[in-house]
């Protein structure tokens, strides 16, 4: 088994473990032991640091991925590129820290009325952003040394597990809330140290001046230009993901922000299958685009779109059919349950988005890749303006409408662009069949009678609904031969276990 396959399998395992830890943390541990305000505050610190790191690293991870091959040479210690990759984000981190401090009065003015608690800890964003910068850069360096498993484990398992343990220690009274936050930030600093130690253990921690025969002035200008352009896309993505909850906190308070964040997290579970399918498809898709084989691109896009709709659609159905039970079981569910229709708005548009297939990937790996950044930045601006308008009027529901509408427009624009440039559309008659099956199964859930909710009865009814939905869904998908891949998988399982 090759190193790429081994590393990919290990990284995939780490990702799934991380998803499990994340669900337990978000749906129980955090909601159980943190007040709604404390939960929102901790998430805002984390998410804002991700947002700021997206531009403060000055595009360094993208530069590493694009240009590392020019320097790769273990005998020459990669011609000193590591020193450059560490210095450039240091400059970005210093610039960010100065800018953040300059804008501190504006930050105080924005949050003082509705979220004064945030102002007590907002400065933690500076070290947290710095740590995120170097985690991203060191991950990129490891990635270009064909090592992704350990960095992925640190991001997906260690950091999430550390967060869970620190919240539990706070819940048990062993830590104050302030101490917990400081230790959470410190855990990210430790992640940087662990990554450096891992790189040293690999024998790739090369501290030497860059080779100016390779790292010429013209190449530096080219690298910075590329990093700056890709940086716009990274900032756009993070703005689309995180700006809404920050604006809710500023305009409506931390409680509203906490409700919105939990609802967004629940809706976001729908996208988990898409990420796995997209990762599998990207290498084949990129190869077809290089060859100009658009027929194969069309086939791959339609198959991916269909399988993403099947996987994401059934996850949506499982969530929405039991949404009242989910909020009943979540600690402080009566408060978080106010975001029920935030889940609906965001989940529906996510189902549509995943049903449109691999449009982003098609654009990114084609000669039109610059349009991907353009669309992301334009969508981020649209989302910001809509949130600015709707949050003061409708609170977190307004944020949900703004985000849902922005995502819908973003999806339609990408799909239209791919159809225009490549003649590729994601939909087939099977798309309609899947939609009808999902609607039919949702209607069936109404046949389950009402009942008095207790913890036990809610869990049993969730299990019953889920079993009914999954079994009927599989039977119908296989019976009508909607997905070749699913039918082949079922046939393979039958052959293996019934022979």
From TrEMBL:
Any one of the GO CC terms: plasma membrane
InterPro entries reported for this sequence: Poly_Biosynth_Transport
Alphabetically ordered keywords of this record: Cell membrane, Membrane, Transmembrane, Transmembrane helix
Subcellular location: Cell membrane
Domain of life where this protein originates: Bacteria
Keyword Transmembrane: yes
Bilayer topology term: Multi-pass membrane protein
Residue ranges crossing the lipid bilayer per the database entry: 12-29, 49-68, 80-103, 118-137, 157-175, 181-199, 219-242, 254-272, 309-330, 342-359, 371-390, 396-420, 432-449, 455-478
Main location: membrane
PANTHER family: O-ANTIGEN TRANSPORTER-RELATED (PTHR30250:SF11), PST FAMILY PREDICTED COLANIC ACID TRANSPORTER (PTHR30250)
Protein name: Membrane protein involved in the export of O-antigen and teichoic acid
Origin species: Dyadobacter koreensis
